[in-house]
Design brief:
This protein has about 210 residues and is mainly α. Helices cover about 70% and strands about 0% of the residues. The radius of gyration is 23 Å and the shape is extended.
C-alpha cells in the first residue's frame, strides 16, 4: 500500500490481531491509573474527537495518518466494550456477533432469500419509524443531519432525478425568503430559510459533494 502521492508508508510495528489489541486494552484497565477509572460517559469526548480525526485523515489522503487514526478509533471501540464487559452488560464478542447479524440482515440478497432491497426501507420497516428523523442521533451536526434525512428520503423513493431538481428548490426557497422580507413577514422568512436548508444538502447529494 502507498500514500496518495505514491510514496511508501512509514514502517509500522509488526502486524498484530484484534485479539492482541483487546488483551492490551484489558491490561490497561488493570495497570494504568487513568484507563482504570474511565467510564462510558468520560470517554464520549474522545470517541467523537477520534471520529473527526479519522475523517480529517481521509480528506488528507495520507494512508499512514489514516492507519494510525483508525487505530485510535478502534481503541475507543475496545475501551467501551471492555468497560461494558466489566459491568456485565456485553463483551467485545457480543459486539462482533451483533455486527455480523446486522450485516447479514442488511444483505438478504447475499445471506438470505436472494432478493435485493433498499436498506433504508428495510430499516424503516423494522424500526417502525413514524418520521424520517426517528433514530438519528440527537447530537448530529445540522448539515450532516440534513444529508442523512435526504438519504433516508431517497431510500424510500422520494428523490430528485438529478441535481436540477434540488437546484430549482434552492432557487424557489431563496425567492421565498426575498419575498418574505419585502413585507417584513418574519414567519415567511423563517419558512423560506428552512426550505433552503433542505434543498442545499439535497443539491450536494446530487453533485456527490461530501
Amino acid at each position: 500500500m502507498s500514500t496518495s502521492e505514491g510514496s511508501a508508508l512509514p514502517a509500522a510495528p509488526a502486524p498484530r490481531s484484534l485479539y492482541d489489541a483487546l488483551a492490551l486494552m484489558k491490561d490497561l484497565r488493570v495497570r494504568c491509573d487513568w484507563d482504570r477509572v474511565q467510564t462510558h460517559a468520560s470517554l464520549r469526548p474522545y470517541l467523537i474527537e477520534e471520529a473527526h480525526e479519522v475523517d480529517d485523515a481521509i480528506a488528507g489522503g495520507d494512508d499512514a495518518v489514516l492507519r494510525d487514526e483508525l487505530g485510535d478509533l478502534l481503541l475507543q471501540v475496545l475501551f467501551h466494550s471492555v468497560v461494558a464487559e466489566e459491568r456485565g452488560a456485553f463483551s467485545m464478542q457480543d459486539v462482533a456477533g451483533a455486527l455480523i447479524a446486522k450485516m447479514h440482515a442488511r444483505h438478504p440478497h447475499l445471506y438470505g432469500d436472494g432478493i435485493k432491497r433498499s436498506w433504508e426501507s428495510m430499516k424503516a420497516q423494522k424500526a417502525k419509524r413514524s418520521t424520517l428523523e426517528d433514530g438519528l442521533p440527537t447530537g448530529m451536526p445540522s448539515l450532516h443531519r440534513a444529508h442523512r434525512l435526504q438519504d433516508r428520503a431517497a431510500g424510500v423513493g422520494f428523490d430528485w432525478d438529478n441535481a436540477l431538481g434540488p437546484l430549482a428548490k434552492v432557487r424557489e426557497e431563496v425567492e421565498e425568503v426575498a419575498q418574505a422580507h419585502r413585507p417584513r413577514d418574519g414567519r415567511g422568512a423563517r419558512r423560506g430559510r428552512a426550505g433552503g436548508g433542505a434543498g442545499g444538502p439535497a443539491l450536494c447529494r446530487g453533485e456527490s459533494v461530501p
